[in-house]
Amino acid sequence: MTYRIFRNLFHLRKMFVYVALGVTLFLTIYFFLLKDEHNNKEPPGPKPWPIIGNLLDLAKASDNMTLSMGILAEKYGEIFSLKIGSKRTVILTSKEAMQTILTNEATLARDFSGMFADRSFNKKIGIAFSEGELWDKLRPWAFKTLREFGFGKSSDMEHFIQDSSQRLFGTIDDKIGTGKSCDVDVELIFNNPILSIMWQMVVGRISPEDEPYIKLLAEKGDAFVRSGILGTGIVNAFPFLRFVFPKALGYNVQMDYFNTSNTIALNLFKEMQEKWSTSQTTPTNLLEAFVQNFSTDPKIFNSENFQLTFQDLLLASTDTSSSYMEFVILFLVAYPDVQEKIYQEILKVVPDGRDLCFSDRKEMPYIQAFFLETHRKGRVLQNMLPRRALSDIAYKDYIIKKDTIIMADTRLYYESQENWTDPDAFRPERFLNEAGQVVNAGNIISFSFGKRNCPGELHANIVAFLLVTSLLQRYKLSVPKGQEMPRLDLKPGLTLKPYPFQATFTKR
Ligand code: HEM
Questions:
Q1: I need a labelling partner for 205 at 20 to 30 A (CA). Which of 96, 103, 222, 340 fits?
Q2: Mutate to test the pocket of ligand 1, among 137, 320, 326, 372 (most ligand atoms within 8 A of CB)
Q3: pLDDT value at position 277?
């Protein structure tokens, strides 16, 4: 018996040695003898390992995932290749590369796998991850319809935004009580008000029954975005891992948000279908228009497509704009002289203290320059949403092969000394000429390029302008007494935001 055990152990050890020798031989051949997988026309990049691709190179470049791609770009240039798992990926880091490649119609598709497939019942539906005929029809229809209900129209949006900001100021005033000031945790204060603005345009109302859903979506949406960029990268590279380590990779949190959003949207859709079957009125919101079009084109205007359109609109507008607003407060607090200049500009344009309208913005170049500088330093979507090449694409001497994932990372561009002379400084004046007019706004590329760029730019600008001006009319912002200056670097996540900080809101 003992002899048999020893003999088996011996065989096992021999087998292990053979396997180890085999693997070593394979890796040696792979690295030294096999022809380089990058044909010389593909953009350069570190040599990928079998199975894991360049995940180790990314991890080695920096333990801060927001920096990794930029660090590799310093070595390989404005366009370089990586393999994320087995996925061939190209990273763009210069404005020229992004502008040229992302406006090419062959890059209108998206990467679609792992959690991005699970969130949409494994179908390419909705706006942000659909493609082809459905995307061609749904995106223009959704934004044309939203515009009818106020989206991107300052006069209509003013009403929604004032409503949301009043509620936010109410909470701050309650906290101040009979005093003059209070310290506020800035993290997440804008999520709920900003989500409410888009909710009103999509659903057409905020009833007391809607409030808990808005709160739930704001909270779970934030948890989704914070659920770990590393986890999402790994899950996209090795989709099966999401079922093996769902908790560690953030997959549970992500699915929790998707399921919550899809259930809320489905209930709204059914409720509207019932209403429509009894009284047929002219639509006053996106949901109503969606349901009314169901009978004419059920392939597009069905409940699943509504669920994903609802999710795309609420998530894309809320997290980006709220994180951007957190950066706005951070920079106002960190640079009191900048805050004072904006306040003086507000006083000059509306000395009587009336609410500002978006049309006042054209008289206010300094605040416009401040918003541009905030986009440069507070890079909410530093890594834009991944695209996918529909055919081979030529750029300079390189070829991006069909089906390559295309990612853009704006950090190096925004931090380049060559482009900005003093990139580390927060200096809105860089966007003003000697006559005090706004210049070089086109150098801010945060909303991307081409037909698949961000459709929410104007909406985001209106929201930021009206929220910030009304806030500064009421409060002066500062670092709380006895606290250190908050961190100015960016907190990693699917989108970037400031690290948690407090600001003192003092009534003017
Ligand atoms: C600070 C605010 C925002 C920033 C920096 C931002 C940035 C971006 C970027 C970089 C993309 C990817 C574009 C591409 O693939 O080339 C995108 C997509 C998108 N954004 Fe925004 N965004 C912001 C606010 C908004 C708002 C307010 C909305 C309102 C609805 C919105 C809706 C969308 C949608 C639906 C997409 C997907 C478009 C498509 O795939 O066709 N975004 N955004």
A1: 222
A2: 320
A3: 86
Ligand 1 contacts CB of residue 383 (under 6 A): no
- pLDDT tens-digit series, residues 355-412: 899 999 999 999 999 999 999 999 999 999 999 999 999 999 999 999 999 999 999 9
Is the CB of 324 within 6 Å of ligand 1? yes
Is 206 within 8 Å of 232 (Cβ atoms)? no
- The answer on whether 182 is annotated among ligand-binding residues is no
Residues ≥6 apart with Cβ < 8 Å to 324? 374, 375, 378, 380, 460, 464
Give the bridge partners for 418, in sequence order: none
- Cα dist. 404→239, 289, 319, 397 in Å? 17, 37, 28, 17
Report whether residue 195 contacts ligand 1, using a CB cutoff of 6 Å: no
Residue 310 CB coordination number (10 Å): 26
Instruction: Provide ipTM, 2 decimals.
Output: 0.99
**Predicted confidence (pLDDT) per residue in 438-457, tens digit:** 999 999 999 999 999 999 99
CATH 1.10.630.10 corresponds to the domain 35-507: yes
| Residue minimizing CA distance to atom 13 of ligand 1 | 453
